[in-house]
Design goal:
Chain lengths: 387, 387
């Protein structure tokens, strides 16, 4: 298999983008990524587009062909990838495979979600499609409810506190303040999180990532071609994915996401690296408890110990390990199909040294972690600045 | 790149499956395919699942993870592919690439759509998401309308008649009578098509493929492993895909689907074959005019001449070339995400000599052709019985 690198990255501004639809968001991120890679649209050989529920949010399926059309990639194979909130990360893995295999040299991976054209209730119902419709959503549980069950059990087993969970949100908002693309550039306090409205006990409003509009695009190239386009290609050291039961009730554990554990383990083995080698990581913090689970399941902390470490500041910008420097899903926003690709863009900027006020000093190796649903899909990538 | 073969195929019964949901349909097709391949679920390394609008039809996204869960493929990477009505064909191409690349040895490709849980109006709206929501559907045009425009122009330019279009439906219903999985095992006459209710002039009810429930599954293996599972692996000689503008109004021509022309041309070149070499082909006859366009765009007939040839019986079972022996989308049914995979299953059975009453005598080389929307995606595969 061939080495694959990211040679360009672009984002739209994340947030409530009332004046922009899927096409405008894609164009905003896509043009930025193509310009970054100094590449023209006619050099693109294939496109993967991640989006979760564009049919229900915007009445639009067939979104990858629309992206290819909108970005001027005439007649290339275009494939939409949908794996709930891991659609972006899964699309990135497909792009990686298409190049690693030798089938294509230059592939664009995009992610987009336009969520604010429907009511909050409709959005919650659409997002419920990430779980088991018959056995979970139809019975009345939504995603905050599923993660609340995980949080409750984590509190019971390990003594994790609501204040510790709140500290995840506080840190991610702090990072988001330094990210021009972020939805929430606003500091919050533990006290504000604790006093925010209960969504599903113990999760409160400020424990939850928001409804967002946004798009993200990266340009991938085989390593032998990458240097022609960008001085600092970012090599993808590993690209791994696992699945698990769609239903939370059928999992082996409520306090671990097995798909994350398996994908991370495969990724570390493939890259011949260990958790201690990672300088900067974007993890899937759809809810604050999810970041705690991720830090433990990837192997940065032993089970039951991450919450205290986060509350102690170990994962703040330029802490022991810098986590969610973009602001994460909580602070940067969570347009679901875009998130996995946005994570990759953030790591590209960090490893290039282009992350401005939120730059992790001396960052050389990065990671992204993208989860679908309550853990039925997990995708893990490891990245390194190419020599 | 490595050679890839199909070692197992399975279908659910197509039709109005009131008592079955996505899970039951997938299980029905999946178990048949696994048994056919004499393979156990724990040998499967990856799954691609094609479905177009499960979110709108069933409230269920994240369908590939659900399929993997349902079929017992524990923890494998599972990826949903959505390319409108070409979701199944696109999923097959991803499965092919995953093995050709050397990344995986055994991959399952499934397709499913459960369309009858919504009203006909809701289904038509959901299917409209295959076109440009803002520029087509929102303005009031649905898919019969888009294909009616193509039919009208084809009639104007080439003198194609409504009776010739009707002959496509008559032939495909005739074939469907011999297919135990088909939705419509019922002969119809030209006169019945002509007298059926106008849907969008000149297309009448019996020119249109139906709303259907169904699933299809194939098992792919690297050629070196294929013979261990099945005596007659079917080799994939080519797997090609192209895209075009989502909007019909922006195409170069209304009487040709350029994505089909490009994908077919690439496929013939890759396989070092020509249209005359194909013994049996499943083409995308979502409407009768679509089969006429396909026969011309793939290169079986010169532009403007296919309609007469079909009416003359050249494409009937064991005619000059046997087209849509399964009954096609018109006769067998069109559960959109399943269709592209069902086409592959039909060709597998034809090339093995297992197609019973609808067997094409001496069939050695087959083809499938799957279209998304009004032609924004086209996927073409060529198959040959392995020696």
């Amino acid at each position: 298999m061939r080495d694959v690198a990211i040679i360009g990255a672009g984002l739209s501004k994340f947030g409530e983008r009332w004046n922009s639809g899927i096409k405008e968001l894609m164009a905003e991120a896509g043009i930025m990524a193509l310009e970054d890679a100094k590449i023209t649209s006619h050099e693109i050989e294939m496109l993967y587009g991640g989006t979760m529920a564009s049919g229900r949010f915007s009445g639009q399926e067939h979104v990858a062909a629309l992206m290819a059309d909108q970005l001027g990639f005439h007649n290339v194979p275009a494939v939409r990838i949908e794996n709930a909130c891991a659609s972006g990360g899964s699309a990135l893995r497909q792009g990686y495979m298409a190049i690693a295999s030798g089938i294509h040299d230059i592939v664009v991976v995009g992610g987009v979600e336009k969520m604010t054209d429907v009511t909050a209730s409709e959005a919650t119902t659409a997002l419920g499609g990430a779980g088991d419709q018959e056995w979970e959503l139809f019975q009345g549980i939504t995603f905050p409810g599923l993660y609340a069950l995980m949080a409750k059990r984590h509190m019971y087993e390990y003594g994790t506190t609501e204040e510790q969970m709140a500290s995840v949100a506080v840190k991610n908002h702090e990072n988001a303040c330094k990210n021009e693309f972020a939805q929430f550039r606003k500091r919050i306090t533990i006290d504000e999180v604790m006093r925010s409205k209960v969504v599903s006990d113990p999760l409160k409003l400020l424990d939850c990532s928001p409804i967002s509009d946004g798009a993200a695009v990266v340009v991938l190239a085989s390593m032998d071609k990458a240097k022609k386009y960008h001085d600092t290609p970012i090599k993808i050291m590993a690209s791994e994915q696992s699945s698990d039961t769609l239903r939370l009730a059928e999992r082996e554990s409520l306090t671990a996401i097995k798909a994350t554990q398996l994908a991370a383990d495969k990724a570390f083995r493939h890259a011949k690296l260990a958790p201690k080698d990672i300088d900067v990581v974007e993890v899937h913090d759809c809810f604050t408890i999810a970041e705690i689970l991720a830090m433990e399941d990837i192997g940065f902390y032993k089970k039951g110990t991450a919450a205290k470490a986060i509350a102690d500041g170990e994962t703040a910008l330029n802490g022991k390990i810098s986590v969610n420097t973009s602001g994460g899903l909580k602070g940067c926003g969570h347009p679901v199909g875009a998130t996995g690709v946005k994570q990759a863009a953030e790591i590209v900027w960090q490893l290039r040294g282009d992350a401005k006020d939120r730059q992790v000093k001396g960052a050389e190796i990065g990671m992204t972690h993208n989860v679908g649903g309550s853990g039925a899909t997990a995708v893990v990538h490891i990245y390194k600045r190419a020599d």
